[in-house]
Fold this protein.
Amino acid sequence: MDDMIDDAPADRGLAQPWLDRIAKAEAALKDWQDAADNIDKQYGELSRLRSVARDREFALFWSNIQVMGPSIYARPPVPVVTPKFKDRRPLYRTASEFLERACVVAFDLADIDDAMISLRDDLAIVGRGAGWLRFESDDEADRICIEHLDRKDFLHDPARKWADVDWVARRAWLTKEEMRKRFGSAADEVDYTGPLRDDRGRYAKKDTVDRCGVWEIWCKSAEKVVWVTDGSEKVLDEQEPHLKLDCFWPCPKPVYATIQRRTLIPIPDMLQYKDQLEEINSLTRRIHTLAEAIKMRGFYSGGGDVGDAIARAMKMHDDEQVLIPVPNLASLSTGGSDPIIWMPLDMLANTITGLIELRRQVIDDVYQIIGLSDIMRGATEADETLGAQRLKQQNGSYRVRDKQNELIRWARDAVRIAAEIMAEEFDKSTLVDMAQMDLPTDADVKKQIKQIEDQAKAVVAQAQQAALSGQADPQQIEQQAQQQIQAFEAEIAKAQEQVTIDQVTEFLKDEKLRPYVLDIETDSTVYPDEMAEKASRAEFMQAFSGSMAALQPMFAMGPEAIAVAGAVFKFALAPYRVGRELEGLIDDFVDQGPQIAERLAAQDGEGEDEGLAAAQMELAKAEMAKVQSQTEANQAQAALKAQELELKSAEAQEKARQAEQKFALEVEQTKGSIEKTAADIQKIFAEIQLAQQKLGIEAHREEREDVKAAAEIEARQVDQAMSAQDRQRQAFENDRDASRADRAQDYSERSGDRQADFAERQALLERTESAR
């Protein structure tokens, strides 16, 4: 139960209307529940499996589930939160990363893997799995709890499709103490049905603990949550939903395998090949019975009854006793005078061989029905080509893809509900601790802006004081102050662009804006194929390098062409999921494309274009002339002051001459620095081009070596497989020839013995007659 109250509510409605809904839903699912009970016993019932007297069975159903399970789910899902539109707004990007980090931590704490494995097993075995999300809060922290629900503890409004469902319900089994803590005095009005183990399939903490099954019903049309139980005439509690969710229910749609047409009644996959499983088990029992009868038994002339002797021979389990006495053996013999008659085992062996072959064919029929290829089961043949094996693997994955998508969809819906609960219910400090992102607060940004404004005011005051004192040129002071103020304004604008934690949490709590801005998904829950992963990355690198080479000419066509090239570049790489960090770097690279192009063009021009160099020299000369004219104006002003102040004229002229010499020296030094910097830039650009060429050659060489090595390995494997098959076929033929030879020699020896014995008897008879 989600909430705790001290006493039962005063105004409690009748429980029977809600219990009638529960009974109607249980009746609608009764056939499925009965079938699921039988399937659970067939899959694994310890008392039946450990019984010595049980019939022999072929555990194909259990084996299929063991193969199917890892194929549809193999690793826990990882939440992925991204902006719906890639316009790179700082708040949206920061909020999506913040919420994604919090969801990852929440899934880890909730042990999502355990719930997903239980859902996977329910989906594969009985055809439906359900789960539930709860919000818990105490003095320590806020938490998201993700629970797997037993199939008998989850019900919903019978409908043709999930969009028509009006209510969902879950059942919790509470002790009397828990009932009193949750529902107060209403706990004394209900019946307790006994230990939890009888209904839930597991043991309670103590066998003597009685529990009460309480249904928590979320009704969309009534917009309320109701708690009811059998044995209580009134509801235990009734209130408005304590969680405000877009989907209303705190549970995703259950995962379904196959459903009955125009209903939400599951159909277990096992029922689709139930006849084949029964036939396989019947053949297995017959094979085992005949195998037990294949024992070396011989009959010789002796006393006793014939029927008793034969019955005793069939029931004997002692392999050491081979010969059995039978009276009137001669009357049972159809020909010849062999004193021992052996049981015809070849007929039994041929029958067993035929039954085994028939069972193998039925097993293949089962694999055809459920779509488990031999590659997925780890079985293959040496003469199969690599293409045939890949085709089998792909076809097998197609058959189970619906189940994979169902589990991925459930995980996606679960993370959306969890994200909505965290955004609206979690405390801000809890979210900050979960996300582990160093974001400033609004107060921190205001404090930083105030510090910058104080520095700007101090600079302005200092400039005014210097201008009033007459210690320097007022225009120069004003120019320097203006530059510093512009720098302060840039810092203030940068500080105002910072995304704060207050802005992020306020945005996440916006129920109207959040669903339109954020796209919440999960990554795959199936282990990727390593070879396919490598091929995908190689394909990405090929697309990346190919796009760069194809779009490079557009970078020389101006900012507009660069913008188009950047958009095309991102469009070409959009199908590849390369992670948030690399996607951000690619976006930054595209945004900085014009600046990069200008910088490269400038570097190229300094080393190659003599006309541009001449133009730059003329520009430098013009700047020199401008500086010189300004210097002459200063000298004229100094001369005017010299006329007014005759005593200071000589000193002013000397200072002007020294300033001119110093300025000329600084200009020469600046020119030298510019030339040196241009040479360094040209050298660096040449080194970068050389490194790029080397990298391209090495990458091409490595790719050719990889392809060559892969081809050699594949050819070696094919040769080994063919050699192994030839050796196996040759050994089989040799064994068969040796067996034929042994049988022929044995038959020849026995024929010779019989002829010799017959000749001796004939000679004895002749001697007897002659003696008479």
